[in-house]
Design brief:
The protein contains five helices and 15 strands. The protein is α+β, with helices and mostly antiparallel strands.
């Protein structure tokens, strides 16, 4: 089973390497894949979105280990979840919300059995001491029922779908900013009628193009990104810098029909 890692650890420090070392110590044949380690520090919602965007690209049986965990060492639970054909290991802080919303049915277990942890558990590095060992044991064939009691009432973030207000406008948000400065929203192409007006950071955008090179060079425009969400872009530039935007900023879609 592949083990896919998604964290906010970056690559400057030893954290990701330590997790991989623990996994390989338990399962030397593990196939470890890095999704990304450049999630913004403590940005749980962005991590949940990135997981949603890519988990279906992996083969059935993949074990996703997501460690964006500002509550490490607190009373928040450590969990393993079976959903669809895959497994998800990480903190119970909402980071799996979008995937579980899409999948619908799932089974979650608390990671409480000490036999499936490192002998000594740090209060600041559960990625190495709890989540990595759990993933490795799952890859070796251990059923998630063995890890601990059922976990119910998982922490859930507000859903990924935008809201429609009484005036008919659709209110969404910027859920992620990629390395090119494109602003990825939670709007879908089918949310846009023709004509439309999208308001963001005091600017109005009224055009959508099929690809980046088709757009104008000096003003923001929309494209449907590869993950099927609408993105705000600047040709050969950063829409985030141009607009001074950040994750969580609201976007308002007016449908002038």
């Amino acid at each position: 089973m592949p083990i896919a890692l998604l964290t906010d650890f970056g690559t400057k420090d030893h954290f990701v390497g330590a997790m991989k070392g623990v996994i390989l110590g338990i399962d030397p044949n593990a196939a470890i894949v890095d999704i990304t380690h450049e999630v913004g520090p403590q940005d749980i919602r962005s991590a949940a979105f990135l997981l949603l965007c890519c988990y279906t690209d992996f083969p059935s049986g993949t074990i996703f280990v997501v460690v964006v965990d500002p509550g490490v060492g607190s009373e928040r639970r450590a969990i393993a979840v079976a959903a669809g054909a895959n497994y998800f290991v990480g903190p119970d802080n909402g980071v799996f919300s979008f995937v579980l919303e899409r999948e619908g049915k799932f089974e979650a277990r608390e990671l409480t059995k000490k036999i499936y942890r490192r002998p000594s558990v740090s209060t600041t590095f559960h990625g190495r001491d709890i989540f990595a060992p759990a993933a490795a044991h799952i890859s070796k064939g251990v059923s998630i029922e063995m890890f601990g009691p059922k976990a119910t009432d998982l922490i859930a973030m507000p859903g990924i779908s935008p809201d429609r207000d009484v005036a008919g406008a659709i209110r969404g948000e910027i859920v992620h900013i990629d390395r090119f400065g494109n602003l990825i929203t939670n709007l879908k192409r089918e949310d846009l009628a023709n004509p439309f007006r999208l308001e963001v950071r005091g600017r109005t955008i009224e055009r959508i193009f099929s690809h980046f090179a088709e757009g104008p060079e000096i003003e923001p425009f929309l494209v449907e990104g590869s993950s099927a969400f609408v993105e705000i872009a600047i040709r050969d530039g950063s829409a985030a810098a141009f607009l001074g935007a950040k994750t969580g900023d609201q976007v308002v879609l007016h449908l002038d029909i």
